[in-house]
Structures are given as structure tokens and as C-alpha cells.
Design brief:
single chain; mainly beta; 5 strands; about 0% helix
Length: about 70
């Protein structure tokens, strides 16, 4: 797990880069990774992804990987 700042946001290495959500197959910019505390004491890492022309969604941070850039000809 990456360092979490005093503001509660994780300093994820892919922050502000294009990522792919392997669960939904969607791609966009990783805008934040937050930590959500559940009543049973578990901490869940939530990734916030914003596509270029759509509505931001959340997914498990474990579902995030660097997006492959399209091949230019």
C-alpha cells in the first residue's frame, strides 16, 4: 500500500495518469485514491477515475492498471 497523506488521500504512483479499470474496462484519469473505513474495521481503497468525456466513477484501487496508449501510425 502507498503512503496516505494527512488529508486521507493515498499517494498512488498512477495518480493523474491514464488508467484502465479492469472490472469495467473503462479508461480515464486517476484523480484520487481514498480509504474507506467499514464498520467491521476493514479499510477499502477506492480509486476515482474520470474519463475525458463522461462521469467519474469509483472502483477498487486493486482494479487499476496503467492504460495502454493507442499505437500511432
Amino acid at each position: 500500500m502507498n503512503v496516505v497523506g494527512h488529508d486521507g488521500y493515498e499517494r498512488h504512483p498512477l495518480l493523474h495518469t491514464r488508467v484502465r479499470d479492469i472490472a469495467s474496462k473503462g479508461e480515464g484519469e486517476l484523480t484520487a485514491v481514498t480509504h474507506e473505513l467499514h464498520s467491521d474495521g476493514r479499510v477499502v481503497r477506492i480509486a476515482h477515475v474520470r474519463p475525458t468525456n463522461g462521469i467519474e466513477w469509483t472502483t477498487s484501487a486493486d482494479n487499476i492498471q496503467a492504460a495502454l496508449l493507442p499505437v500511432e501510425h
